[in-house]
Amino acid sequence: MDELLEIxxxxxxxxxxxxxxxxxDDGLLNSFDILQIISALDxxxxxxxxxxxxxxxxxxxxxxxxxxVNRLQQEG
Amino acid sequence: xxxFSLGYLMFNGILLILYYTVCRRKQWILLLAASLFYYTxxxxxxxxxxxxxxxxxxxxxxxxxxxxxxxxxxxxxxxLDREGKKKVKAAFTRRKRVxxxxxxxxxxxxxxxxxxxxxxxxxxxSLLLPLGISFYTFMSISYLVDVYxxxxxxxQNFARLLLYLSWFPQxxxxxxxxxxxxxxxxxxxHTFDSDRARRGMLLILFGLLKxxxxxxxxxxxxxxxxxxPVDGLPGSLIxxxxxxxxxxxxxxxxxxxxxxxxxxxxxxxxxxxxxRQPYFSTSLGDFWRRWHISLGAFMRDYVFYPFALLKxxxxxxxWCTKHLGKHAGRVLPACIANILVFFIVGIWHGAQLHYVxxxxxxxxxxxxxxxxxxxxxxxxxxxxxxxxxKGFHVFRIIRTFVIVNIGWYFDRITDFRSCMTxxxxxxxxxxxxxxxxxxxxxxxxxxxxxxxxxSMALALVGCIVIFVVSFRKETGHDVSxxxxxxxxxxxxxxxxxxxxxxxSSFLFTTSAGGFLYANF
Lengths: 76, 520
What we know:
By secondary structure, chain A is an all-alpha fold. Chain A contains four helices and no strands. In chain A, 32% of the residues are buried. Chain B has three domains: 6-191, no CATH class; 193-271 and 417-515, no CATH class; 279-412, no CATH class. Chain A binds chain B through residues 31-32, 34-36, 38-39, 42, 49-55, 75-76, and chain B through 82, 85-86, 89, 145-146, 148-151, 300-302, 304-306, 308-309, 314, 317-318, 330-331, 333-334, 370.
């Protein structure tokens, strides 16, 4: 989780990823942030997040993003 | 049977009685039969396209689902290691991609042939454009892409999919409903809810007011201005005409959506929201999140993100970060994806140059605004401007309104040379002193003054009503809810006044126009 938080804070330091649970629903992340986060996660974890995974449930919190990364890593 | 005919009202009335009484156990079958009947009545041979289209979508999605299932089973094979599972997934993804693209390309080719062929090749034999084809094509694409992405399994029942694609209230001009939002509503058994029905009827009334009292009252004046020679028009009158178009366009499209959403809600089927007080937007990007919301959301999910996430685009973003700085790396790929989106939105409206320019104008303004955002923030800080103040908020709304209206020049003035002339004359020959005489000359040739100014006065009253309702909504009020909770006498007076306004419009109506977006 710490590694993920570091990646996310690197994309934007205007959001507290540790505590926020509604990043998308509350409009804290915009499309630029989403694209940057996906690109960073793809690089860091060797995955490829498709556009179909861009749903609020996957990006509303750091925890949800970690779950997405783990799932995509498992699926190969 | 147009949306504002007695026939449409009776059609819905009879349906509602059957829906909540004898057909309660099979409501969705009644809705499907009604939708197909309505579509046949409206579009005739268009029904053939709709049925074939639905069949291809149905078969394509079923194939995608079966490939997904087969992939899952194969990957469970215990003899496969991680690498083997990866290979199986890659092989099935390739096969799924072929199916997806075959169906999407087929749908787009049919759409292109019917919609653009005559524009591109005027001598080619023209085919009748089936009503609502753009809308059901987009709905099919969203459904197919979602099934491809494994968001939900393909619908097993063809009739249920057909109902999703043909639901009669949203068939004509949208909104572009999503399958997971619509399908559960069709599967549910609905009981009559008087509160929901009252809300629905208020929405229909408001939609009728927008359409009759504003849109239809202005259509002739706008046409008088922009569909003829524009060389001698003073810029002030051109600006006035564009402002009229701004009101007409919103009243027509959002009014139509209110009417269909109202009728749909009478059956307990809530349509996707399509407008959220767009003229209160604080930026052009914000405007497009409030205007034709379902199209914007479709473009975001099925064009913007897939394009921006392509490997070359991601590489481009990294290159920009390295060579042009963090901000450029962050926004440039999205800007390019945005320009592509608006180019497609422009083309979707029509193959004519003015639509393409209108799309590109929107894409470029948003891109420029994103790219230069740090400069404006820095400038505001240097000038010690309070960007959070109410005054600055109002300034942003007015600035956005002006930017949107410049875009309407490209949208409404169909001849490219005339459009450029109008833009130039707005800047160089504003000529406010001749506004009144030019207005009388342009609008009153061939029509009597009473009709022209009567219709415009009525439209002004309609605009004030729309503004008040929109302002209250924008400030967080549930206008329908408040009205329903209010005194019956107040409700009665407001409803009667609305009806009187609508009836008054008949005095000045010279033609019962269709809906602008029914042509797409």
